[in-house]
Write a structure and sequence with these properties.
Shape: globular
Number of strands: 7
Radius of gyration: 14 Å
CATH topology: ADP-ribosylation fold
Distance between the termini: 10 Å
CATH architecture: Alpha-Beta Barrel
CATH class: Alpha Beta
Order of helices and strands: EEEHEEEEH
Length: 140
Amino acid sequence: MSKATDAISDGRTFYHGTKADLKPGDLIEAGYSPNFGTRKGAAFVYLTETLDAAIWGAELARGEQAGRIYIVEPTGPFEDDPNLTDKKFPGNITKSYRTLSPLRVIGEVTQWQGHTPQQVETMKSRLAELAQLGTEIIED
């Protein structure tokens, strides 16, 4: 487990991609089904400093609703996301994190450019392959 970071954002902007319909002040909490993987309840909530990582979260989230990207603030300590950091992207170039504490929605990014349909389908196919192999996508 990597070192936890204080909840103080030091002026940094954090995003969370999902298909949930939220409004400012709402809390995104652990315990709900994650955007991907087979778990019923996620132990952590995920956030990122890059819009691209949040876009992937919004595009790959379960459900038929449109993807949404929220600007969030952590309410407690957070750490590097071990699902990406040093496994896929050494040094956390995606600036992806996880926390046991809720994220407070402070706004929404309403205009963003998604990935191509082919890129999204390729990623979804890869996630489905991993699921069939019994590989859990999210490590808690």
